[in-house]
Every structure is written in C-alpha cells, then in structure tokens.
Amino acid sequence: MRNRFARPAVVGVLALAVALWWWWPGLTDRSTTVLIISGERLVDGREPLDRRLRENGFTTEWSSVADSWCAVSDRLVSELSGGSYRAVVVAPSSDDSCALDATLADSVRGAGDTRLVVVRWPDVTPAESEFVRQLSDRSDVRVVDTARLLGDAGSEVDCLWWDDCPGSGRIVAWDANGLTESGNQRVARMTVAAVR
Fold first, then answer.
1. Cα(155)–Cα(120) distance, rounded to whole angstroms?
2. Global model pTM greater than 0.85
3. What is the separation of C-alpha 9 from the centre of its chain, rounded to a whole number of angstroms?
4. CA 139 to CA 174: how far, in whole Å?
5. Residue 9: enclosing H or E segment and its boundaries?
6. By the 8 A CB rule, do 43 and 65 touch?
7. CB distance 187 to 146 below 8 Å
8. Is the pLDDT of residue 178 over 70?
C-alpha cells in the first residue's frame, strides 16, 4: 500500500524540481527581460508585442504609461536603478508637454547601459524627429521607423505575408482611432527585430 502513494509523490517532486530548474533563469535573470515604457498607442497593441517577444525567448515588463519624453526619462531613471534589462523599448504617444532639448536627450541616453529601442511614429513633429535623431547618435540606440510599414493615417498599404488581406491586397494599418490589428502586428515585428 505504501508504494502506491510513494511513486506518484516521487514523480511529482521530480517534475516540480525539473520545472523549477527549467524556469529558474527566467525567474532570476533579467538578461532576457525587455522593459517597455510606452504611451497609449503601444499599450493598445500590447498582446502582439508580448507574444512576439516571448516567441523569440524574451520576457516583458511593462512600465506605467508615459505619453511624453519627460515621463519616459523619469521612468528610465527609476526603472533602470532596479536592475538590468536586455533592452528598453520606449514609445511615447505624444509630446506636447515636454521641452525636447539636449539635456533631455542626455538624460534618456545616460539612463543605463542597456540597448534602447525607440519607436518613432509616422506622425511625429519635426522637433520629435530631430530629438530621436539625437538619441540615435548613441551606438546602442535602435530606431524603429514605423512609417515604413504603416504608411499615413487612413491610407492603404500593401499586404505582407502575415496580414489577413481582403481581395484588394491592401489594408489600413492605422487610422484616426489608432493602430489596427495589422498595424499592431507590424509594429510588434519591427520592435522585436530591433531588440534582437
């Protein structure tokens, strides 16, 4: 009677030990964790980005929403003081409350030694575009230029192999309401390519 319960208990303990051994690096090591500090646009497309990053062996940690570059700078300083990450993705949605100057660029660049992935939206102002250019002067900053695959707001772009395409072979990737499902997929794929 004793053997009837002992074997399942031993198998269960061994299975738990193997699972813990398998997941331990992911639980304790942040070298595969990607920190994401973004505005509402990227938060709305969170699921495709999480899924794409996981498929490539990364874990994600989302910071609270940061709509301006000043908020991004503050969050970078506070979040990076707690540990290191494989990469930090920053994608503020708008920037009407923040002075985009060299001091802010230095603050964002100097926040840590992690790879910085900057998502640049198609509708950025010339000041924001110049600010992103200043950031990209650092060698470990990668800029994700979403305009390449999203096009202009409301305009149709050619389908790619992963898109669910209508008969016309063209889709709208983003419109007045934000990114469409296809637009979220495109941004996620470009972001993951920059993180790698």
1. 18
2. no
3. 42
4. 30
5. helix 2-28
6. yes
7. yes
8. yes
Instruction: Specify whether the CB–CB gap between 195 and 58 falls below 8 A.
Output: yes
Pairing of strands 170-172, 156-158: antiparallel
Give the HSE-up count for residue 20: Cα atoms under 13 Å, Cβ half-sphere.
6
Q: For residue range 44-101, what is the model confidence (pLDDT) as tens digits?
A: 888 888 888 888 888 888 887 777 777 777 777 777 766 677 788 888 876 556 666 6
Structure-model confidence comparison of residues 95 and 13, the more confident one: 13
In Å, how far from its chain's centre is CA 134? 20
What tokens does 50 get?
């999480």
User: Side-chain half-sphere of 80: how many Cα atoms within 13 Å?
Assistant: 24
Q: Which residue has the tokens 């699921």?
A: 47
Matching residue, tokens 């992963």: 162
The residue written with tokens 């300083």 in the block is: 77
Over residues 118-153, the pLDDT tens digits come to 888 887 777 777 777 777 776 678 888 888 888 777
The answer for residues whose C-beta is within 8 angstroms of residue 175's C-beta and 6 or more apart is 153, 154
* pLDDT value for 131: 78
* Fold classified for 29-150+177-195: Rossmann fold (3.40.50)
CA 69 to chain centre: 16
pLDDT of residue 132: 79
Residue with tokens 């709208």: 172
118 within 8 A of 136, measured Cβ to Cβ: yes
Structure tokens at 15: 């299975």
